[in-house]
Amino acid sequence: MNVRLRGQVRPYRTVGYDPRRNEVILIEQRLLPHEFRLVATRDYRETARAIRDMIVRGAPAIAATAAYGLAQGVRAFRGRGVDRLSAQVERVFGTIRDARPTAVDPLNAMVGVRQAMRAGGTVEEQQELAAAAARSFADTSVAQCEAIGRHGMPLIKEGARVLTHCNAGWLACVDVGTATAPLYAAQAAGRGFHVFCDETRPRCQGASLTAWELAQQGVSHQVIADNAAGHLMQRGEIDLVIVGSDRVLGRTGEIANKIGTYTKAVLAHRHRIPFYVAIPLSTIDWDLRSGFDIPIEERDEAEVLGAWGAPLAPKRRAGAAKPVGRGSCRAYVRVANPTSGARNPGFDVTPADLITGIITPAGIFRPRELWRKRGQLGGPAT
Ligand code: MRU
To answer: Which residues contact 188 (CB under 8 A, 6 or more apart)?
Structure first.
């Protein structure tokens, strides 16, 4: 998507790869919205760390990063013979897989890269195939987000007020976004609408990333406290909810997404507000049989006990934020009582009966239809 920086507009992807230097190129998302900076990871371990430490985040974005990271690890192999290379592949695969557990997309992406490599008879051929497969995963992911936009656009009626949670925008994908794709398509069609971005404590991806994205694209929006959604729904001020997901169970239609998504789905159900989940095909897990089997990431308690932000220079009003000093814009402040601890599950699971539809690149499906329609959705034969 286009980013306006110091008066210049340039298109960026969230994740890229420099084959000359064998580096994965990422937007340092922890600095947004206060500073836009690209970072390069020099080996697969750094790439895994970038996922774990959330330099890059969002299921499809960490999937592309994982795919490139695997290709990067393969490319760095200096030994002889495809057997030895395959031991390296397993090492890289495991390191990146373990960086974050809830999203299934990185796993699906790396399985695809690993499979594509196997067609090569030599180390060099396998290295080339891995890089090509990673690139193809990233390009396909963008095309799928565009298709989500086409299918989801009719849901955004003129004047619609849309709630979204966390960031399922282009920063969470390679480009375009999932939950935001129908919004951008509606905007391109000239439709007017308004987006409420849940702040999304504890890391505030809604307040920092979604709000920044929408501001960059000129979409009307406001940030709301997580606890405000019920009040707005009760007053008839929200017409539609669209969120992304880290794992959709193809067998049951349950979805895992950022903590607080379940609460919003319950509220939407209570108020008869349509609740949609937008996903590329890499987000579908065709194996697990219950949402209780989804590994839910437990993150550091510091995220709940405090918050990151940029100190404003004196006299600047909110909205005109300018970070103080280069490289020093991100500061942590303790909010909670100093002697208290915290529990910090990063995701929750929303049951199928609270979901109106799953917006996919192949169309919109009811959650419990996914298994029956798996032929159209890249699922297994049986
Ligand atoms: O912890 P995060 O920021 O990686 O969580 C991101 C989300 O929960 C997104 O909604 C999800 O990954 C879907 S992104 C299209």
So the answer is: none
